[in-house]
Write a structure and sequence with these properties.
The structure is a homotetramer of 176-residue chains. Chain A is α/β, with parallel strands linked by helices and 176 residues long. Helix content of chain A is 39%, strand content 18%. Chain A has one domain (7-174): HAD superfamily/HAD-like (Rossmann fold, 3-Layer(aba) Sandwich). In chain A, the strands form two sheets. In chain A, strands 5-4-1-6-7 form a five-stranded parallel beta sheet, sandwiched between helices. Chain A has a two-stranded antiparallel sheet with strand order 2-3.
């Protein structure tokens, strides 16, 4: 097994957020993202690793966040995450065994069981956590997704590489 | 006494939330729910156990949350929670002794004292906590309601049952 | 010195909130209150102890919160809190020495130094905390105000009294 | 080297906030500031030390916060923070070595490496933290900026000075 995944997939609620859903009196709704996680998306882009969001909720909130971070693949309103992941793997010519996925709750278990690189945030229930091979220290909304990406990049000695790519990018910005 | 309640009732502020009430400049208002608690509602539905919200606040916020989670019984703007619970018990043909209730503050005490399965979140005041037979580890808004449901299902060896029911449901979704 | 204050005054930001000020793109603003603190206001009402908010901010947010909790005296947009408190004391025929005040920051120090019952939330800076005679365990926004009221009521053996008054009130509701 | 910086610069997201970005369904966005940090800005004003915000995000949110706190220099939408800081230093006739800067993430590293007084909040990643000479105890959004200013003022025995200036100001308000 190659130690570097060829595809990263993330759940949203409970991973990019602390599970919080803010409701108001008018029918509007809020989620709180953490800018810290955006570096995880950036690192994957530097390494040309495709990245997908698969979430059961269907909101403009997530669509806007995905657009802001230029996420390539966004699947929302999905109850059967495993099938969607299988289809994406097929399109991209990768296997589930080559796929990394972070999710935190019941609906994530079928996909967590099948991917080669499963992870859950620190605050997931034990009956979900048992399907994770990684022990993350961050809770959802605290940068658990970024930690997930960094742990895997560190296992592959790629952190210095992506940091240098980012410093080169900043240097270019400076010289323009 | 049957160890499995025949009715579950929950308070909202301080149980499904951390007690936070967000006000703005225009008269609108917010509450922050935790998607984690929605699994508690789901587990009760799998077991055909009726479920009610009784809250002293009267907001569209809670009505929308109840609608989203398909909650059967919603009583809002209620100061006398005990009478409402008694009437619901009567309608459903169950007793208060067969009822589970989680609340966190003063107005919940009369009902906590009468139900067979009283619980409070970890952060409730001591003079409320003393009416609870269960020691929950989660605070309001952190999934205390879900923990309450799971503790009782575990006491009845029903957790594996509801998890399997949920995996079957996900499997059906996959095969459609 | 009478151990029971004849007037309670509270600051808002950092006491009833964690100091958080939520800004959006349109000029609107939010504060997050904690419903837990409302019991502190209720206890004072049961004891007929007058209660005032004095805050340097001037927002509809606080006015609405004060209205919801039926706060008698609200002074907002106040930089000189000591003078306002002195004037209120004079109106009510009480002294600053008979007054309880909880504040958390620089602008609260002049008043903290003069009142008989000064308190600060657990997270106040040390150079503010040193003017407090009470050690509260709660931070602003976690119910520090309620804790302040309860500590003083407990010192006067009045907690059971106000709790019973509240249970009587709930009982009356039931019998109507 | 003079121990008192002649210019203070701060990042916003992850320093004045916990990194949280609140999205809703309509395209609006929120940040949560902490009123505690406003005292840091005030202290610098009492000492006539120029102060700048340099942030990569470009939002009305930050512009309004800067306006509220009467921040002199606001640069938003900036990816190359080092160049902007160099230009501001040049305008003000100070060097980067005389400049204090607090930032928390990748894009802050080039500037953190060049200033004489670099700092990061307690929750910054280790590969950012290593460029900081100060160990702050507060996380972003908890008052890390204020702590940064206070640590440096304490090192220069200036805290009592600014506190007295503030008490004089409050006294003047009283006597008007």
């Amino acid at each position: 097994m190659n130690k570097l995944p060829k595809l990263f997939i993330t759940d949203i609620d409970g991973v990019w957020t602390d599970g919080g859903m803010y409701y108001d009196q008018t029918g509007n709704e809020w989620k709180k993202f953490n800018t810290s996680d955006s570096a995880g998306v950036l690192f994957l882009r530097y390494l040309d690793i495709p990245f997908a969001i698969i979430t059961s909720e269907k909101t403009e909130i997530v669509r806007r966040r995905a657009k802001k971070l230029k996420v390539e693949y966004l699947y929302d309103g999905i109850s059967d995450k495993l099938s969607v992941a299988e289809q994406l793997c097929s399109e991209l010519g990768v296997t589930l065994n080559e796929t990394a996925f972070i999710g935190d709750d019941l609906n994530d278990i079928p996909l967590l069981r099948k991917v080669g690189f499963p992870a859950v945030p620190a605050n997931a229930p034990d009956y979900v956590k048992k399907y994770s091979s990684l022990k993350l220290t961050k809770k959802g909304g605290e940068g658990a997704f970024r930690e997930f990406v960094e742990v895997i990049l560190n296992q592959n000695n790629l952190m210095e590489d992506v940091l240098n790519k980012h410093f080169d990018y900043l240097e270019e910005q400076k010289n323009r």
